[in-house]
Specification:
mainly alpha
């Protein structure tokens, strides 16, 4: 099967690649093990986008945060970045800022400075890999 798939891709026939894509999607829909399905979905995501959160995945992650979910929208987070003059990736900033709210609200209260400082420190962690935010929020949480 691997040989067939590689041949379809190598031939570059867009129509055949779309057929292959539909076949793969049908097969994945048949997978009943939810953990395995999530693993495949993440692998496909990484093939498509790399180890970088896009807006759709980031919003999905933030909506599932407990106990509060989204406190700041992506546009709110961008406004906060402008206000504080920070230059981290806006999507990473959005996710980590909301995570900080969900995890540290009792400690930080309404002090936006604390949320921003924590978010910047989390993203710029010198010990961490460059794709720390992606790894943390797609595999560890």
């Amino acid at each position: 099967m691997r040989e067939y798939i590689e041949r379809i891709i190598d031939n570059g026939d867009i129509e055949k690649m779309h057929e292959l894509s539909e076949m793969l999607e049908e097969l994945l829909c048949e997978v009943t093990d939810e953990d395995l399905k999530k693993d495949y979905e993440l692998e496909l995501y990484e093939m498509a986008y790399g180890r970088k959160l896009n807006q759709e995945l980031a919003e999905k992650i933030v909506r599932k945060m407990k106990p509060y979910g989204e406190r700041w929208t992506l546009n709110d987070a961008r406004d906060i970045q402008m206000q504080f003059g920070t230059h981290e990736d806006d999507i990473d900033f959005y996710v980590v800022l909301n995570s900080a709210y969900n995890d540290f609200r009792d400690i930080f209260q309404d002090n936006i400075d604390n949320y921003v400082r924590y978010t910047i420190d989390f993203i710029k962690d010198e010990d961490a890999k460059a794709d720390k935010v992606f790894i943390y929020f797609t595999t560890l949480v």
